[in-house]
């Protein structure tokens, strides 16, 4: 009887652990100052508790290029940042979400914040030059397995425009 009780107790503990992991185990993209949202697809962060959400920040650098940072952030910080966006010069977008991973793409919810639409390597991407909204791009191209989709923000004719296409997974810069 004691062996049976220990087995039941162990099963209850495993089920409880699974429940806590599924409730509190929000999975988010993780990156720091990535040049493209697709660069964030390779790392994930597991939020620690129900008080955290996934986030995505898009920051405009002095040379007018943008970078992305993603991970887990407390709900309180998300609320404070949401009320301050637009009041800080370099942060173009700061958003949070707490939806589960998209079952179709297996990409966490923060991959879709700030008007982003990440695509895994070798996928079909929009190819457009200077459109007003990335969703306006109606031309698609199959990227090579060594490429990812890119969405660059440019300032043209007094307005923000977007350039979409494929680019190499690893971009090297010369200084």
Count of domains = 2
- Total beta-strand segments: 11
Output the structural class.
alpha+beta
- Which series of helices and strands comes N to C? HEEEEEHEEEEEE
- Number of distinct helices: 2
Keywords: Signal
Organism: Mytilus galloprovincialis (Mediterranean mussel)
Signal peptide: 1-25
Protein name: Sodefrin-like factor
Keywords:
175 residues; alpha+beta; 2 domains; four-stranded antiparallel sheet; 2 helices; 37% strand; disordered N terminus; signal
Characterization of the model:
- With 175 residues, the protein is of the alpha+beta class.
- The chain has 2 domains: 27-111; 124-168, no CATH class.
- It contains 2 helices and 11 strands; from the N terminus they run αβββββαββββββ.
- The longest helix has 23 residues, at 2-24.
- The relative contact order is 0.15.
- Keywords: Signal.
- This is Sodefrin-like factor.
- It comes from Mytilus galloprovincialis (Mediterranean mussel).
- Residues 1-25 form the signal peptide.
Secondary structure elements and their pairing?
Blueprint lengths: L1 H23 L2 E3 L1 E4 L9 E3 L5 E9 L5 E9 H10 L6 E7 L26 E3 L1 E4 L8 E3 L4 E10 L2 E10 L7
Antiparallel strand pairs: 1-3, 2-5, 4-5, 4-6, 7-9, 8-11, 10-11
Summarize the structure.
With 175 residues, this protein is an alpha+beta fold. It has helices at 2-24, 75-84, and strands at 27-29, 31-34, 44-46, 52-60, 66-74, 91-97, 124-126, 128-131, 140-142, 147-156, 159-168. The chain has two domains: 27-111; 124-168, no CATH class.
